[in-house]
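Chapter summary example.
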Amino acid sequence: MPRPFWSGQVRISLVSFGIKLFPATEAKSEIHFHQLSRKSGERIKHQKVSADEEPVEKSDIVKGYEYRKGEYVTVEPEEIEHLRIPSRRTLEVAQFVDADEPGPEFFEKPYFVVPENDVQAEAFAVIRKALHETKKIGLGKIAFGGREHLVALSAPKDDKLAGMMAYTMRYAEELRDPAKYFGEIKRVSVDEDQLSLAKELIKRKSGKFAPEKFKDEYEVALREMVEAKVKHAPIPREEPAPKTAKVINLMDALRKSVRGEEAPVPKKATAKAAATGSRKGIALVKPAAKASKSRKSA
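The structure predicted for these 298 residues follows.
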């Protein structure tokens, strides 16, 4: 097993047990670029220099806080290391909330949580099971990486998995006020027939989440370009976007989209189709060949 990212104690009132955290994600990109001189083709090196352009060794660099213009107080690494922060070694669970209560905008990075050793396994298993059955997450704080992070401790949805999950979270003050961005959106009334068709379209395109189906196409295109350059072959270019039909009304776009999924249009939605024909503002994307075939046979 790799070295844990963080290890310490989880404390819930008088209950405590040791855990280890491991990052649940990893960078999969295989394309790494270096900076080169356009003229010579040689690698560019970065060197730290002082204000008088003199090179400075890494061992001679220290953190400094500017408390007054041009005046600094220096801070040594060992001084930071010995700060009195309880959360450096202990995750104190301060509150439990419903697992679906915090919005997705609060969550940052996931971690796998395992018991520190076999001795800690019993308490670990009891808390994991309790979190799973109550559908709660525990909120606490951990100090690492130069700051104190808000952390959510939870049980995986799959009860067969014996571990737990931890997620670093954003503090409320880190999130911008959505009203500043959403406040100017024009309020419009929603047509019930259009809403019915939109729901039908969502239903037709719904399915079980399969994360393995989603791939990084940008990485694939980047690799194709690099390989073409290595082989002195033509570089693949972006294909022109397919032409779309005329801008049509929203109702027709919804009807054609649902029909393109080879599903019957709900009778309720077709009742007012003619009445809404004057509404403009949405482009109908050309359907796939399969959809075209289904319309011809209709």
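To summarize the output: Residues 94 and 140 are 5 Å apart (CA to CA).
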